[in-house]
């Protein structure tokens, strides 16, 4: 079997190398791409942009003071580069803002040691410094709560089993091999596993909501939950409601797996453990709306000025790191691409527009709001169907390009099922084969803002990127920091994005679209 599989991969590599009647760039286009490469590789500002977004302004949780200050700075840079129509576009409601102002958590007996831990977003803090006993109260199902009723008041409560820590036999930093890119290019086989995982996730979420109410009613001091990471990496997201009317939550804390395991093992041995915490979290209820950041390079050709090529990335992040790979990297690349296009002065027949979205981490909210405001939306048609309502601007958007998979270099592009655009993209990739971009895949890819565009029949695309340590270390974790950004990859991405924008903006025709979806089955989620 192994010999047959190897032979098949070699055959697929040979087939993948056959041109798709690629529409190669012209001599004038190649001259412009040379200018873009020179500016992007030899005069890059992308890492300086990254340091401001991450080191100076830090994590950018939607509606937090940080994200608003980072947005002001970003608009200042866009104006400095003389981009046009720079503004914030409001959308909402999103909900209240939140920030962590102070955090300390440590064991004080039987042996003192600090815990690597972070407050969960949209949860309250403690009332000053609180000290209490740790309580091991494993709750695997709703009936388990009755065992602990009346026993948890004022305690630091652990309710989950320690996640398994796998044996590491391979590096967690990875670049795609040629064989893996071939596999990525193949048509995916439908599977029910994703639906099964979602069902398990939904069941666990419903149980957590019941546990949360129980712990609030019991009056616990802090709810401690284990992070699924290891080696001190802590994955942290939300733990409370954004709506002021949502059910209350106790102080909730994500604890490093190894620290959590030590606490559980001591408590299982009936060793009393005392903890102390000082958690100061702040809510912001003054403005429940959020915003997207918009800026443009106007078209050079009046007849095409109302046709738009868009690029975008989500500007928001979670809060335990500094939002570097998710998604300061995408925001930095898109800002640098706009700077390159403006600095080189290459001709752009169509208007080029940048959108930096907030609320992505809570469900693509910012980009969905933008698409709804400008292009199209779904509305009910009977009890089980939805129909699309198209706005005039929908016909004027040429294409949307997105970056949101960390700082790994671009290896290709997902076609989102758009067969007609394959020859075009195959030709456009030719000047970047020596930079590692040579792969098209018909597949969809999920989880980020191009889906807001694709869902209403617009050509929305996400690039294939080397995974690096995005999924294993940095995505939503305390390790999502500047040091995980790969400078050569960032430069490569900015150059490719700027070049794809240039090539899109200067075609005589707009890029091919898939057929417009007229109706669909009614969904609880728009995607």
What are its keywords?
disordered N terminus; 33% helix; 8-stranded mixed β-sheet; 21% strand; Glucose Oxidase, domain 1; Aminopeptidase; alpha/beta; 527 residues
Helix content estimate: 25-40%
CATH class categorisation of the largest domain? Alpha Beta
Largest beta-sheet details: 8 strands, mixed
- Radius of gyration (Å): 25 Å
Shape: elongated
Structural class of the secondary structure composition? alpha/beta
Number of separate structural domains:
2
Please, could you describe this protein's structure?
With 527 residues, the chain is an alpha/beta fold. The protein folds into 2 domains: 19-94 and 289-521, Zn peptidases (Aminopeptidase), CATH 3.40.630; 98-282, 3-Layer(bba) Sandwich (Glucose Oxidase, domain 1). The chain has 13 helices and 19 strands. β11 (308-314), α8 and β12 (351-357) form a beta-alpha-beta unit. The longest helix is centred in the middle third of the chain and has 26 residues, at 193-218. The relative contact order is 0.17.
Q: What is the element layout, followed by pairings?
A:
Blueprint: H1 2-17, H2 27-42, H3 46-56, H4 65-80, E1 84-91, E2 97-109, E3 113-114, E4 117-119, E5 129-136, E6 156-158, H5 178-185, H6 193-218, E7 222-226, E8 252-255, H7 257-268, E9 274-284, E10 290-297, E11 308-314, H8 324-344, E12 351-357, H9 365-374, E13 376-380, E14 385-390, E15 397-402, E16 410-414, H10 422-429, E17 439-441, H11 450-454, E18 460-465, H12 470-474, H13 487-505, E19 519-521
Helix pairs in contact: 1-5, 2-8, 2-13, 3-8, 8-13
């Amino acid at each position: 079997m192994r010999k047959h599989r190897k032979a098949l991969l070699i055959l697929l590599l040979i087939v993948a190398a056959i041109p798709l009647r690629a529409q190669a760039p012209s001599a004038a286009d190649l001259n412009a791409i040379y200018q873009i490469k020179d500016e992007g590789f030899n005069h890059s500002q992308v890492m300086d942009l990254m340091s401001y977004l991450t080191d100076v302004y830090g994590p950018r949780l939607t509606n937090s003071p940080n994200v608003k200050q980072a947005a002001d700075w970003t608009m200042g840079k866009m104006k400095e580069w003389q981009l046009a129509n720079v503004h914030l576009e409001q959308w909402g409601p999103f909900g209240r803002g939140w920030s962590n102002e102070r955090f300390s958590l440590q064991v004080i007996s039987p042996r003192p040691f600090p815990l690597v831990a972070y407050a969960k977003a949209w949860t309250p803090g403690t009332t000053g410094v609180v000290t209490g006993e740790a309580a091991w109260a494993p709750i695997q199902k709703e009936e388990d709560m009755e065992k602990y009723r009346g026993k948890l008041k004022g305690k630091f409560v652990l309710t989950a089993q320690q996640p398994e820590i796998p044996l590491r036999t391979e590096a967690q930093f990875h670049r795609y091999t040629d064989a893996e890119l071939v596999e990525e290019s193949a048509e995916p086989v439908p599977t029910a596993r994703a639906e099964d995982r979602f069902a398990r996730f939904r069941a666990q979420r419903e149980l957590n909501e019941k546990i949360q109410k129980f712990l609030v009613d019991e009056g616990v001091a802090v709810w401690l939950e284990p992070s699924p990471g290891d080696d001190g990496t802590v994955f942290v997201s939300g733990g409370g409601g954004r709506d002021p009317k949502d059910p209350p939550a106790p102080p909730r804390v994500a604890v490093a797996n190894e620290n959590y395991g030590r606490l559980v093992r001591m408590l299982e041995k009936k060793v009393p453990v005392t903890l102390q915490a000082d958690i100061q979290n702040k809510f912001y209820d003054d403005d429940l709306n959020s915003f997207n950041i918009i800026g443009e390079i106007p078209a050079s050709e009046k007849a095409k000025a109302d046709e738009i090529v868009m690029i975008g990335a989500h500007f928001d992040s979670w809060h335990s790191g500094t939002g570097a790979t998710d998604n300061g990297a995408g925001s930095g690349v898109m800002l640098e691409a706009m700077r390159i296009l403006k600095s080189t002065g290459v001709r752009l027949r169509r208007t080029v527009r940048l959108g930096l979205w907030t609320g992505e981490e809570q469900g693509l909210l910012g980009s969905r709001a933008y698409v709804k405001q400008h292009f199209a939306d779904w509305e009910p048609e009977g009890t089980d169907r939805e129909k699309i309502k198209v706005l005039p601007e929908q016909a004027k958007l040429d294409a949307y390009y997105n970056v949101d998979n960390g700082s790994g270099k671009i290896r290709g592009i997902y076609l989102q099922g758009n067969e007609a655009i394959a020859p075009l993209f195959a030709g456009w990739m030719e000047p970047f084969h020596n930079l590692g971009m040579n792969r098209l895949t018909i597949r969809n890819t999920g989880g980020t803002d191009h889906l807001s565009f694709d869902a209403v029949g617009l050509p929305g695309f996400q690039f294939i990127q080397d995974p690096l340590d995005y999924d294993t270390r940095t995505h939503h974790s305390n390790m999502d920091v500047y040091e995980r950004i790969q400078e050569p990859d960032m430069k490569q991405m900015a150059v490719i994005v700027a070049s794809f924008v240039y090539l899109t903006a200067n075609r005589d025709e707009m890029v091919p679209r898939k057929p417009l979806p007229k109706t669909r089955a009614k969904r609880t989620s728009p995607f």
